[in-house]
Amino acid sequence: MFEKRPKLFKNRDVLTPLFVPDTLQDRKDEVEVISQYLGYILDGATPPDLLIVGPTGSGKTVTTRYVLNELEKHTDSMIKYVTAEGTAYQVATTIADTPRRGFGFMDVIDKIREKVEDKKAIFVLDEVDKVLAKDGDRLLYHLSREPNICIVALSNKLTVMDMIDDPRVLSSFKPRKINFPPYNAPQLVEILEYRAEKAFNPGVLKEGVIQLCAALAAQRNGDARYALDLLSFATDIAIRNKQNKVTEDDVRYAQDEVEVEFIRRSITELRENQKLLLYAVLTSKEKTPTKIYNIYNSLARQYGINSLTQRRLSQLLRELELYGLVEIEVVGRGRGKGVKWLVTPSSTIDDDVMLEAIRRSL
Ligand SMILES: Nc1ncnc2c1ncn2[C@@H]1O[C@H](COP(=O)(O)OP(=O)(O)OP(=O)(O)O)[C@@H](O)[C@H]1O
Ligand SMILES: [Mg+2]
Predict the structure, then answer these.
(1) CA distances (Å), 131 to each of 70, 93, 147, 276, 318, in order?
(2) Separation of alpha carbons 313 and 304, rounded Å
(3) Ligand 2 midpoint to CA 156 (Å)
(4) Residue 344 parent element (H or E)
(5) Most exposed: 57, 69, 329, 351, by fewest CB within 10 Å?
(6) Which of 218, 208, 217, 256 lies closest to 236, judged by CA?
(7) Residue 341: its pLDDT value, please?
(8) Ligand 1, pocket-test mutation among 28, 30, 61, most atoms within 8 A of CB
(9) Longest CA span, the chain
């Protein structure tokens, strides 16, 4: 049964999230800034702390890993990359390489200090918002006070610094901020073309396939992961149908699958109050901010979440807009009438898919 399999993929692994390509497309400036800062370790100095923020799929992880790989060729200083999921204690044990039993939090911090000693170290905390949503403050508190440790924090939450409550952390952790803008369609085309050459046998992708994947991903906030997923799912579909080429139709079919996955992922990643806010946007009949705030506040009471000021809610709404989940438009800027805003769910995402995803994750 495996003999007549169509051979469309040369190497499917190249399209998976774990693959780190040997060159990056369109992130030259970012690579330069990050390597300039981290490069100070080569002169025996502690690099400044960094905070790398940008939307999902904008290449934060891959770019940082790429720079780390290069840096490691020139130094044996301690460079450690961790996904900061879980509690401060769990993340600390991952950094320290200690077992998760028999040590208290401060023991683990001491272990980290011992390991670093008087050498210099870079610790990358990817998805730092995850640990900050728990008790990450105390991890940052101790690490940022160590003169020999450089912290590189990555997050797709633009307001991640607001997640730090402890003023002592804010006074010792003052990272340089590096923004990763979302990719546009031509940039996504470049990323896909480079990857496709390694992933597919020649002539497998019909004309227009890459452009379509890029255009659809550009609508999803320029998420490169979404674009790569589209391409590999579309190929799976083509193979299932015993085709020897991938067509634009396959991409459109793949979109349904990738879409649901994408929406679930973006919604699970939201903070509780943003989930409720999005829910309020979806269920409010009149889409004015005031109505939405009212619905939000009554939902918040129901879920035991603090109600928020109008100003804070506007910030959260703008974030939802950045994630591509809602659209904010100005209407009726009539003479003397002032500005009126309308907040509507994204016109390119199915409302029911969003509602379902929120219900699941609340
Ligand atoms: N400039 C690029 N060149 C080549 N591949 C890229 C580039 N940017 C992103 N990719 C690829 O796109 C996918 C998503 O990128 P990455 O995981 O770095 O995103 P991210 O910004 O860390 O997203 P998240 O916030 O969801 O963690 C990966 O498979 C990555 O290899
Ligand atoms: Mg990432």
Answers:
(1) 27, 13, 22, 21, 23
(2) 17
(3) 8
(4) strand 340-345
(5) 329
(6) 256
(7) 87
(8) 61
(9) 74
Q: Which CATH architecture has domain 270-361?
A: Orthogonal Bundle (1.10)
Instruction: Give the homologous superfamily in CATH for domain 28-179.
Output: P-loop containing nucleotide triphosphate hydrolases (3.40.50.300)
Over range 257-278, report the average pLDDT: 89
8 Å CB contact between 322 and 220 = no
Extents of the domains making up the chain: 12-17+183-267, 28-179, 270-361
Kindly report, residue by residue over 21-42, the tens digit of the pLDDT: 989 999 999 999 999 999 999 9
Which atom of ligand 1 sits closest to the CA of residue 17? 29
What is residue 334's predicted lDDT score, i.e. its pLDDT? 63
Extended strands (E) in 129-173: 149-155
Both tokens assigned to 85: 């999921």
- CATH code: domain 12-17+183-267 is 1.10.8.60
Would the CB of 190 count as within 6 Å of ligand 1? no
* C-alpha angle 15-57-157 in degrees, rounded to nearest 5: 155
Q: Give the confidence band of 257 by pLDDT, cuts at 50, 70, 90.
A: confident
Report the amino acid identity of residue 307.
S
